[in-house]
Amino acid sequence: MCIRLPGVPQAKQVIRSVLSAPMARDVPKGHLAVYVGETKKKRYVVPISYLKHPSFQSLLRWAEEEFGYDHPMGGLTIPCKEETFIDITCRLN
User: What domain of life does the UniProt record list for this protein's source (predicted)?
Assistant: First the structure.
């Protein structure tokens, strides 16, 4: 299976870091865990299909600018308000 991410050149690195996280074992196949929040982080499990959507890719770019690929939570961390994340992901469904 191939996923193209035209707006995120280091997408493989993002996915590898998320899949190597200790809690990755309890994520269903076809999904990925992300941590969302500005101060207190909450864990969400989202479908991998979200990675191809431009609005989700903008969240990934934001995360890259904020944290690079060395995430303090051991997984992908998105530094936005939970409400913003929920609003964007609800539109993707």
Answer: Eukaryota
